[in-house]
Amino acid sequence: MAYNELTHFDDAGNAVMVDVSGKAVTERIAAASGIIRMNEAAYEAVVNGTAKKGDVLGVARIAGIMAVKRTPELIPLCHPLPVRKIGIDFELRPEERAVLAVCTVKTEAKTGVEMEALTGVSVTLLTIYDMLKAVDKRMEISCVHLDEKHGGKSGDFIR
Question: pTM here?
Fold first, then answer.
C-alpha cells in the first residue's frame, strides 16, 4: 500500500494530521465495547458494592468519561472534538464472572468519534482492574472493539 493511500501519511511517508477543513459538519456517533473477566470474589465485590476502594462501576464510568474528553492528548493525530454526549453502560455477566462495558460518544463535527469511544471503554475497563486488583490480579480485559459508527463520508458501520 502506498503512503498516499493512508490518511495519516503524506506522499513522503511523514505522519500528518488529516486535513478535515473541507468536510461538512455532521452528526457522528460511535460505540465501542470490551469485557473484563475476574474471579468470584472480585465479581461479588462489584455486584454487592463491597470493594474496598468504593463503587467500582461508578468510578469506572467517571474515568471513561474523562478519558473520552482527553483522547486527543493520548492519541497523537486525533482532532480535538466538541463532544456532545458520552455514555458508559455496563452489563453484568454472572455466568462468566465478567462485566461488559460499552462507551457511546456523540458529536457534531467534521470527523468521527471512534477513537474517543475506544479510548473511553479501554480506560473504563482499566479502572475496573485498578479498583479490584487487590482481590484478583489475574483479571483479563478482552474483546475491545468498535461496535458501530454512524455519520460521515464513509457512512454507517455495524460490527
Answer: 0.91
